[in-house]
Amino acid sequence: MRRRRKIFFWLAGSSGIIILLLLALNYLPPRLINSELLKGKIEDIISQRIGGEVAFKNIDLTIFPRPHATFRQGNISGEAANVSIDYISIYPKILPLLRGRLQGTKILVISPDINVSLSGHKKTEGKKPVTSESITDFFASLPLVYPGLVIVLEDGSINLIKEDNTVFELEEFNVRIDLPPAGLKVIKADMESSSLKLSARRDNKEMLVRASRLKGGLYYDKDKTSVYLSEIIFDSLDLKLSGELGIDNSSGLISLSVEGKELDVKSLREPVLAIAGDTPEVQKMFQIIKDGNIPSITLSSQASSFDDVFKAENIVIMAA
Fold first, then answer.
1. Dihedral of CA 138/140/146/152: which sign?
2. Measured by CB atoms within 10 angstroms of the end CB, which terminus of the chain is less buried, N or C?
3. Contact 221, 184 (CB under 8 A)
């Protein structure tokens, strides 16, 4: 959880220092400024913040019509992830920034290409597990630290790689995250993508499932934390899904619900068995339902931990 926080908000934590430095240098004669030295200093600041390596081709400052700094052709590398970025622009509100605050700042990230390795990383002994309480505490702290912060990612891609094979590929995705002004505690994030690929290998045979549309988001308030999919369309399977993973912020209870409509059993059998064929409940379902069309099916689960909410014995399947 701590590493994900660092990667996700690495610029938010460094923006004030960097832009104040750039604003000050903007008024110095060009002959007094070593641009390569300045770029190196900024890369060092960000690298120390995230615990990885950061490099940019160049950094530009624009004062008019709105002050902002642009970081071009960046690369961020860490233990399990590598991110390349076309450019990042940071638009701060100057008065709060002069007080050391990022209130109302907007961060625009263009064409982030995120590659994450799922293999070869040992679990750290003594590392605290991700719990519902740690997640709700994290979201509750964001408006206090970054009030009014807006993060926009455009035309991005994510690849999850396991044993040199890409098992998850999300392309052309756009994300907008809005943190509330000081005093308010509602966080919203919206995400959409026009291309999703899931890959699974079973009995030396690879299955590839494609989706042409994905919409979802995140919502947080004092009562609930929710990550949801409002729509995902798998063209090759003629399947539409929606779902939600939610946390009751008072009790810590975690709930999962997934709904599918107009399921064609014959077209679903092979890809589902490839992805989840080791699950006894999945095997049993396809032994009972061999063919035909299911108008609606719902999977739901409740538990006190993330491990338990995904366990087969806690999942209830209802078909109509």
1. positive
2. C
3. no
The reported pLDDT for the residue numbered 30 is 43
Averaged pLDDT for residues 205-213: 78
- Each residue's pLDDT tens digit, 219-238: 999 999 999 999 998 877 77
How many residues would you count in the chain? 320
d(CA 104, CA 12): 11
| pLDDT digits 0-9 by tens, 153-169 | 999 999 988 877 788 88
User: How far apart (Å, rounded) are the C-alpha atoms in residues 58 and 45?
Assistant: 15
| CB-based contact 243:217 (threshold 8 Å) | no
- Whole-angstrom Cα distance, residue 215 to residue 176? 12
Cα 91 to Cα 105: distance, rounded to the nearest angstrom: 6
Phi and psi, residue 159, nearest 5°: -125, 125
Residue with tokens 């009972």: 288
